[in-house]
Amino acid sequence: MILASSAAVYGAQPGSQATPLHEDLPLRPANPYGQAKAEMEGEARRLADALGVDLCLLRIGNVAGFDAILGGWRPGFRLDRFADGRSPRRSYIGPLMLADVIAALLALPDLPPVLNVAQPGPVEMAALLRAAGRDFATAAAPQTAIAEVALDVTRLTAFLAPKMSLPVADPRAMLAEIALLGTEKKEQDPS
């Protein structure tokens, strides 16, 4: 069984490209959503063990177009700006790439108990908005803000190798996937 979870179970632990968050880290959810996902993972694991069912938890990073940046954009949108001038960087995956990854995993035997799911390389949120042609402002990041959260996808890449390779996360490619799906928000027709 494959169960969709979230990278939110890692909480506020910073993960950088140099030291990404790997699947064996302790869970430290920082909000109710992350806590609910961590509880779901624990209960699913207990049930799978009791029933003798193989279970692979997919800790999915940000899905482009269904995230708070592209999916939540509104006029007046504001991003944090860190001392280096950059906006937050996060692990992302395009929606079609996510579907391809899940399809490939379903065809593979002996999946590990947990896999992080994202494309390699964190994406700067400002780069996503610029690629989408969306206006935004920036403001100094608060002390509590995390500049980069990168998921370690080494394990995922190894398991997918017989079926597919994961391209590095690219804002323009992810936007092209969104356009193919027709999921971009459209203005409401007043008639």
From TrEMBL:
Instruction: Name a Pfam family for this protein.
Output: Epimerase
Give the gene that encodes this protein.
galE_1
Q: Which Gene3D superfamilies match?
A: NAD(P)-binding Rossmann-like Domain (3.40.50.720)
Entry's EC annotation: 5.1.3.2
Recite the UniProt keywords alphabetically. Answer: Isomerase
Question: Which organism does this sequence originate in?
Answer: Tritonibacter horizontis
> Which residue intervals make up region (Disordered)?
13-33
Q: Which GO terms describe its molecular function?
A: UDP-glucose 4-epimerase activity
Q: Know the name of this protein?
A: UDP-glucose 4-epimerase
The family database entries (InterPro entries) matched by this protein are listed as: Epimerase_deHydtase, NAD(P)-bd_dom_sf
Broadest EC class? isomerase
Question: Keyword Transmembrane helix, does the record have it?
Answer: no
Domain NAD-dependent epimerase/dehydratase stretches: 2-65
